[in-house]
């Protein structure tokens, strides 16, 4: 039986590159996208790859998360990859933070990964070595924050890191590993054209990190090259 992975935000950027990585590794890949109009490449890939199944999911829709979990309740889930993310408005520095946008970013970057973990807990528990890998960001690290600003995105990823740590404490006794991953500064819509690495390099690194996880790694924060990122 092929190992099973579920990836959110899989229609473009790092998520799409991760889908390709796991297809090459013969996983049964469940890839989530929000909007068909933004998912042409993923839909074309699914037409050519029988082990790729697509699901429409806005990660802020908790009923839809529950419904997807029900749809996928037949088999164990080896990896839940919380990849979907949103930066929010750029250029908002101290003094003019948009609280409404802040709530939206938190819904996607912080609350959704926990809701996904809660919904897919039964399937993760059934796997030999269930993994919850949540794509965070180095800018969510307190230690790395030497330049200030970025209140919305930074705080959403710092809070995600806290969620990852609690998941690790709660679920490791049941054999489920939870980690936060930094994908590098990646050339995507979010990372922009000046970013340092392409999506393939990031996804190859992230998959290698996930492949080599042991229970001792749970509750940690890792770069795509495997190095540890301070909290
Ligand atoms: P992109 O902006 O290229 O892609 C973001 C993905 O998230 C898209 O698939 C998007 O779907 C999806 N998404 C956004 N909101 C929702 C939602 N409400 N429900 C479901 N899906 C949603 O970003 P990246 O590929 O660069 O980022 C992937 C992850 O990596 C994110 O968590 C990001 O924070 C993180 N990251 C990225 C870095 C970089 O340099 N690129 C650096 C550090 C971290 P849609 O197409 O429908 O909008």
TrEMBL record:
InterPro entries: NAD(P)-bd_dom_sf (IPR036291), SDR_enzymes (IPR052184), SDR_fam (IPR002347). GO terms for molecular function: oxidoreductase activity, acting on the CH-OH group of donors, NAD or NADP as acceptor. PANTHER family: SHORT CHAIN DEHYDROGENASE (PTHR45458:SF1), SHORT-CHAIN DEHYDROGENASE/REDUCTASE SDR (PTHR45458). Belongs to the short-chain dehydrogenases/reductases (SDR) family. Pfam families: adh_short. It comes from the Bacteria. This is Short-chain dehydrogenase.
């Amino acid at each position: 039986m092929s190992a099973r992975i579920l990836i959110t935000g899989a229609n473009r950027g790092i998520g799409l590159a991760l889908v390709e990585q796991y297809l090459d590794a013969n996983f049964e890949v469940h890839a989530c996208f929000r909007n068909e109009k933004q998912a042409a490449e993923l839909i074309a890939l699914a037409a050519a790859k029988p082990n790729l199944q697509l699901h429409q999911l806005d990660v802020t829709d908790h009923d839809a998360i529950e419904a997807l979990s029900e749809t996928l309740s037949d088999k164990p889930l080896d990896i839940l990859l919380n990849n979907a993310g949103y930066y929010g408005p750029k250029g908002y520095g101290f003094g003019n933070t948009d609280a409404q946008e802040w709530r939206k970013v938190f819904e996607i970057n912080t609350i959704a990964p926990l809701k996904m973990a809660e919904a897919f807990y039964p399937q993760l528990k059934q796997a030999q070595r269930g993994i919850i890998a949540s794509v965070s960001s180095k800018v969510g690290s307190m230690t790395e924050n030497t330049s200030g600003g970025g209140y919305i995105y930074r705080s959403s990823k710092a809070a995600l890191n806290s969620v990852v740590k609690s998941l690790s404490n709660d679920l490791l006794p049941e054999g489920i590993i939870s980690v936060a991953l930094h994908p590098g500064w990646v050339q995507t819509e979010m990372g922009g054209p000046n970013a340092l690495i392409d999506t393939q390099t990031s996804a190859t690194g992230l998959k290698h990190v996930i492949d080599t996880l042991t229970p001792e790694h749970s509750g940690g924060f890792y770069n795509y090259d495997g190095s540890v990122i301070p909290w």
